[in-house]
Amino acid sequence: MNWNNALECSEILGQQAVSALIEEAELTPKPGLVDKQNSGSHSDMSCQLMIKSAKALEETFTQIAFVSYRQKPSQLLREKVAEIGRSGEKTMLEATSGINTHKGAIWAIGLLTSSKAMLPPEAGIERVTQLAGELARFQDRYVPNQNSNGSRIQKRYGVLGARGEAEQGFPHVRLVALPALYAARQKTVSESFARIDTLLALMANVDDTCILHRGGIDTLLIIKEKAKHVLENGGVSTAEGWKALADLDMECGLRRASPGGSADLLAATIFLDGLCTQSKPLRLKSSITN
């Protein structure tokens, strides 16, 4: 991928960010999540709404890339990106009639978009995620004093959360999701199956604050174990794995569990995979220490 100026770079990255969100939304089936078959644990959402929301955010990601082009991580840039992101949240809510479809994705992919725009086109995943982490660690002096669900859950359970994930350079994307995606592709399964297995790898490892918010620690542990069980049975490309996926989906429905944090990280994985295909896969780890 090549670009010659800030405008070209920002437009490309804005389009790639939206494409990643749409591809994540359309991936089917996804236990507990909105897909083309159903709304999962989200009675107020649909795949069409997710796509509408994603398209409405293109200008947000384009602006983030534009202000970040060839810059270095700094508090000033962090605050510029955050301001654009908050404006993007308002755009999202206007497009969805007040439904929070992509707040977490704006944070994660916004940081990665900013980082990628700072770097030369040939920069790989390690450098992009490292720089995104550097940017995330700067404090935003103008952030509204809001006690979000994610921050409350993070404090209550001592989990990484979306902020911690970003500040550490997206370890679950680098060390779990991308290696799982590469490994699935090496088995020559379909791209959809490879991405579903990648989502399951995230669900098996991430202390998902969305699940914790709805169901607490017991639900999180059960969902993580059932996601792991699908993978232990060969993933969704096998008959036993497919059966285990149906069981996981049923469990998510009964508990109203939504792995929204894992979905955001899957979208980030798709985004990075599309932009940094020359990066070498890392060794898959069974878990990440928060």
Describe the fold and architecture.
With 290 residues, the protein is mainly α. It has one domain: Orthogonal Bundle (Triphosphoribosyl-dephospho-CoA protein). The chain is built from 13 helices and no strands. The protein is globular and about 50 Å long. The two termini are 33 Å apart. The C terminus is likely disordered.
Major sheet: size, sense and barrel closure?
none
Gap between N and C termini: 33 Å
Known CATH architecture:
Orthogonal Bundle
Shape: globular
Q: List the domain count as a whole number.
A: 1
What is the CA-based Rg, rounded?
Answer: 18 Å
Structural class: mainly alpha
β-strand number: 0
Percent of sequence in beta strands: under 5%
What does the secondary structure layout of this molecule look like, with pairings?
Blueprint: H1 6-26, H2 47-56, H3 58-68, H4 75-95, H5 103-118, H6 125-136, H7 149-157, H8 161-167, H9 171-186, H10 191-205, H11 209-232, H12 239-255, H13 260-275
List keywords for this structure.
Triphosphoribosyl-dephospho-CoA protein; disordered C terminus; globular; 290 residues; 13 helices; mainly alpha
